[in-house]
Design brief:
Blueprint (H helix, E strand, L loop, with lengths): L9 H4 L1 H25 L2 H27 L15 H27 L8 H26 L3 H30 L3 H29 L9 H9 L4 E13 L2 E10 L5 H16 L3 E8 L11
Parallel strand pairs: 2-3
Antiparallel strand pairs: 1-2
Helix pairs in contact: 2-3, 2-5, 3-4, 3-6, 3-7, 4-6, 4-7, 5-6, 6-7
Length: 299
């Protein structure tokens, strides 16, 4: 596949969603950070820290969608720059883990210190944060299933939404009981939730970078289906991977009888991969059984 091929890039189609969500989150991050510092609430500060990660992650996602659709002028990026969105998702994972670690360290240091946060600010700012996050979730939900990049941003905002709920809850509990430990406990819960979401997204990122078979595609089933194509005697060197969200790639060698016509075999095999397995871009090499071009390859 050359970089010049035209593809429907999943992240590019939802770039406007990322842009609007970025604007909402960036504005409210400043509000929450100032409120957290003035109120002394660790829950607010932890949520602001996570929102800061959102700002960076959403900004990186926006840059990645632009880079991914930029034409290659070097001639060396034969797959284009579509993987930029995967690296942006990896950055989001690192940021989420960093925020989670900060919250845990800060919570442990504050445990038993008796710092009393301003509960009114916690409830008001947490409530406003909940509204902003719900609006961002509605925007990003439409592209979260198609794009790993948008999914990373969506999961960040999901965690932020839970954080906003936690901040409001912490403010109510501290006001009702007079115990500031509720603020610290909720901050720890937010940090733990962020860490779990980061690990789940990180596994998806590593699967793409490790060139695993696309999720939901069984290589053994694909090989069996190809071997069942009329005219195909054997399938070998089958490779399946994801270039970026919505772009699954396949390569395979199809062994045929000497007298078999090449074009019908290619048409049938390509249609099968596209229609049954969602592999729209496949590079297939047809080999008569008396001509094994890859016999000497040892990997």
């Amino acid at each position: 596949m050359g970089a010049g091929h035209s593809h429907g890039h999943a992240s590019g189609r939802h770039r406007w969603r990322l842009a609007v969500a970025f604007g909402l989150v960036a504005v409210f991050f400043v509000v929450e950070l100032v409120a957290g510092l003035l109120s002394g609430s660790l829950a607010l500060l932890s949520d602001a820290g996570h929102m800061a990660a959102d700002v960076v992650a959403l900004g990186a996602a926006l840059v990645a969608t632009r880079v991914a659709t930029r034409p290659d002028t070097t001639g060396r990026r034969t797959f284009g720059s579509y993987r930029a969105e995967v690296f942006a998702s990896g950055l989001a994972v690192l940021l989420m883990l960093g925020v989670a670690a900060y919250v845990v360290v800060e919570a442990v240091g504050r445990w038993g210190s008796g710092v009393e946060p301003q509960t009114g600010a916690m409830v008001v700012v947490g409530g406003l944060g909940l509204v902003v996050n719900v609006a961002a979730l509605v925007l990003l939900r439409g592209g979260a299933r198609e794009s790993l990049n948008v999914r990373g941003a969506y999961l960040e905002v999901v965690a932020d939404t839970a954080g906003s709920v936690g901040v409001v809850l912490a403010g109510v509990l501290v006001a009702a009981t007079g115990q500031p430990l509720w603020d610290t406990g909720v901050a720890l819960a937010i940090g733990s939730f962020v860490a779990v979401r980061a690990v789940l997204l990180g596994r998806q990122v590593l699967a793409v970078l490790g060139q695993h078979a696309p999720e939901g595609v069984d290589p053994e089933r694909v090989a069996a289906d190809l071997e069942a194509v009329d005219g195909v005697l054997e399938v070998h060197d089958l490779h399946l991977w994801t270039l970026t969200s919505g772009m699954h790639v396949a390569t395979a060698h199809l062994v045929t009888a000497e007298e078999e016509a090449v074009h019908p075999v290619l048409d049938r095999a390509g249609a099968l991969l596209r229609e049954r397995h969602g592999l729209a871009h496949a590079t297939l090499q047809v080999e008569p059984r008396t001509h094994r071009t890859c016999a000497e390859i040892d990997w």
